[in-house]
Predict the 3D structure of the following.
Amino acid sequence: MNQFDHLVLLTLTYSSCFNFALSENEVARRLVKGEKKLFFSRNKIKVSLKKLLEQSLIQSDGQYFYLEANNLLNRKSKAKFVESKKADAKEFVKLAQRVPFVKAIVLTGSTAVGNAGKNDDLDFMIICQNNTLWITRFLLVILTKLKNKRPGIQESSSWCLNLWLDENDLAMGKQRRSLYEAYEILQMKFIFDRGSYEQLFLNANQWLKKHLFFYDNFKFGRYKRGMSFSLFNRFMFIIQKLYRQIIFGKENFSLSPTQAFFNEISFKEKLFGRLEKKLDEIGKQTISF
């Protein structure tokens, strides 16, 4: 087995951590980069998949490739909820676009990739007008509560507004530039965009080329972080942060006046732990994440 075969296996193993089978096209799109520079081609993927099947390291039903049968069963069972989740996402867009400071709405997480169950929450990233992030969040939280879609109010299919970015600060910090974030970005769906914010967001995150072959041929443009400072936005940031500390206690979230990540970074660490375990079980060498 050569290095390219290892990368195909790693790609499928990572997806198996989410109990999700992949088509050949999806393997090509999601193919992980190794430390050594390798030539990428669709034919090489086809050859590697065939080799891994012959060695009984992966399985296939002719359409999808996977490590465990449950990966396939889960994907097929979740497929029937894709359209209803899309309709729910459109309902959020219809509400959120009323706030003029909202520049882009991005569907993220399991719903974006088609791996969400009937009652799973929808996760969103919001890009806001410069100096309005915490004003926009305040307004959207109120609107979401009025629709009974806030987590904790709605028992299922809540709208989770997990990621927030100021339009002048779109680059992920160094602690959020791993394979996990690269995949999360690859899966994102820009479902509302008042400008060219999808391109701007990718321009700001050219580190993606380090992790995935997909971005080798992507045309990145230049990115320069803009200036952002507003006393009112900073005031709203402090008020909301204090409110969360009073209600929820200490939280391990990354929050600033221009970026907010309402997700535990420990999840990534646990995910990589599961990935390492799966790779150890099949006795294959890992690469750095």
In short: The chain has a mean pLDDT of 94. The chain has eleven helices and nine strands.
